[in-house]
Prior knowledge:
Elements: H1 6-19, H2 26-39, H3 47-54, H4 61-74, H5 78-92, H6 100-112
Helix pairs in contact: 1-2, 1-4, 1-5, 2-5, 4-6, 5-6
Amino acid sequence: MQKSNKSIAGYHLLMILSSVDGEFAPAEGLKVQEYLAEEFPFKINLDNELDVIATLQPEQWKDHFEFHARCFFDDSIEQERTDFIKFAKSLIKADNEVTESEHHFYELLKNLWNHSNHSPKQS
């Protein structure tokens, strides 16, 4: 897999986080749009990225997620990772329900980045 830049990697992470519960809720879609507007103030075509994500089988999500977490980590500073984790938390809480699978991937991200923060279940 080809290394992604921070913004593209973040998109992959958020799309997987929003899909691991088997439902892409409208509120989660709005959060992803918020991220895209912030990270890509210019028009960008993410069709290829979405195709890659859409063709993943659930058993491939974890490896893909970990790969893009490493890409994001490599291209970011600590504050960007902290901000992204907060945003990821708001994403998984957007539909007012945090499933076990969402919580698992959120915790996985925090662990990969050695980030200690309250989990969404504790908030």
